């Protein structure tokens, strides 16, 4: 897995999309890439034997020269996160809902995973008033299964909610206070930190370079999960849904209350849960017992709907069979009538 982004003005996003597709399709690259006038945001899977060639294709495009590539752990084909390559020009690579764009390049410092590890470790030893403010720039369903020790979760539903949540979180906080932010891969912190600096007036602002994905790789290479300053699972936006970083399980099954951090969506396509809250925590036992649904009511509705669909399918099959039988009978009747008419004509000619 490789992810990267760059918030830097692009003159012709459509042209860049065409060139990237032409370069990456022969390499077997799969994934999701957004390009816009504000920059690029990419999450792709690259075959191991093509990784170096892929890196060369990235640096070969002047728009991407010097971009930081976040290389995650290798995955087997069984857990392939993407099924095709999608490169889409869009209005924004990260929709923010702000009335005007900021200078996304003015976004504070970047800390390496090692620097971040030490900073968070020290932060949790300091007195409450002296420690920096550590903010999780992700949505509620991400932070509920994993976050850094001592972090304040914004508990947003979408990224557009970030700005009000930041203002509320930093209300009354001195402008001299050190602010630390993190997100999954880093791009949300680019915009969030630009907002914290340019709109809220803070100066000492830093982010984790490469986000949790980069930190997870650091922990794997330098430490073990028991020393991770990140607790639990890193929610990722592909078919894996989660990447374990710390040993802890922070959340509980919505049905039985046991410890679980498996996120899922209700198998009842007509589930009444609001769309923004469709993703929930459910243990394997409850998922089996409720046929992949969030509650017994949804399981009953799913079963009834499947029965109705099966009845409708059988009815349609019977209707097709009946029409076929009627056509066959009509054809036989027409053939018999034609034979009788021919016999009458033969007798009349005698």
TrEMBL record:
Tell me the Pfam families matching this sequence: Rhodanese, Rhodanese_C, UPF0176_N
Residues covered by region (Disordered): 328-350
Q: Which domain of life, per UniProt?
A: Eukaryota
Q: Which residues form the Rhodanese domain?
A: 128-224
Name it: Rhodanese domain-containing protein
Q: Which organism is it from?
A: Guillardia theta (strain CCMP2712)
